Amino acid sequence: MEPVIQQGLAKLGIVLKPRELATGAVFTTFQTVANEIPMVNTGWAKDYADPVTFAAPLFSSSSIIPVGNTNHALVGLTSGKAAELKVEYPAGGVPSVDADIDRCQAVPATDADGRLGCWADFDKKLMEQVVPWVPLIWDLSTVLSAPSLTRYVFDQASAEISLTQIAVSNKEQMP
Predict the structure, then answer these.
(1) What pLDDT digit, counting tens, does each position of 95-118 carry?
(2) Residue 139 above 90 pLDDT?
(3) Which pLDDT score is estimated for 174?
(4) Range(s) of the chain covered by CATH 3.10.105.10
(5) Which secondary-structure segment (H or E) carries 105?
(6) CA distances for 25 relative to 19, 42, 65, 86, angstroms
(7) Mean pLDDT for the chain?
(8) What pLDDT is attached to residue 154?
(9) What is the per-residue burial (b if ≥16 Cβ within 10 Å, else e) of 130-140?
(10) Three-state DSSP class for residue 160
(11) Which among 6, 111, 133, 141 would be 20 to 30 A from 37, CA to CA?
């Protein structure tokens, strides 16, 4: 993928300095704010099935820390925090979504429609007004199954097939 991405971005005037690092070194390198790594190809897994497990760690200003930073886009960065981290603060400022996160977190889990609606509005605002990132690649998974598979459940926690919720027929299948 690297040459294709490099060539595509070069057309926009973006020059990459690609580096491959061991997994531990990748996270140490790009989660250190002072290194100013603008692009990285990693994923994020939720802790449990609620949008807050993406919103708070990835976009809350309280997640901006010198080392181990998970708010890679520095959404909500203030001029004081930028000075503390020794990074440049943009002249136009940096938008914050802290109030939006707080508002959605305040909606009780018992109000599933209200909570999901709040997070949907948050996502729309984030991607249309804040635009913290642009997808670089999109993973596509193909699941092959046999006719004997009678139950398949996607596990939200592991983002894989739920091995405790799968069923197959033990009846002999005729070709």
Answers:
(1) 999 999 999 999 999 999 999 999
(2) no
(3) 63
(4) 2-130
(5) helix 98-106
(6) 11, 13, 18, 21
(7) 89
(8) 87
(9) bebeeeeeeee
(10) strand
(11) 141
CA distance 2 to 19: 10
Q: Name residue 135's amino acid.
A: P
Residue 70: other Cβ atoms inside 10 A? 15
Burial letters 18-57, b for 16+ CB under 10 A, else e: eeeeeeeebeeebbbbeeeeeeeeeeeeeeeebbbebbbb
Residue with tokens 């709040």, as numbered in its chain: 118
Give residue 100's identity as a one-letter amino acid code.
D
- C-alpha torsion angle, residues 145, 151, 154, 158 (rounded to 10): -90
Side chain identity, residue 48: Y
Residue that wins the pLDDT comparison between 43 and 163 = 163
Average confidence (pLDDT) over 43-63 = 89
The Cα 126–Cα 164 span in angstroms is: 35
**Residues written for the chain:** 175
From the candidate CATH numbers 3.10.105.10, 1.10.40.50, 1.20.1050.10, 3.10.20.30, the one assigned to the domain spanning 2-130: 3.10.105.10
Give percent of the chain above pLDDT 70: 95
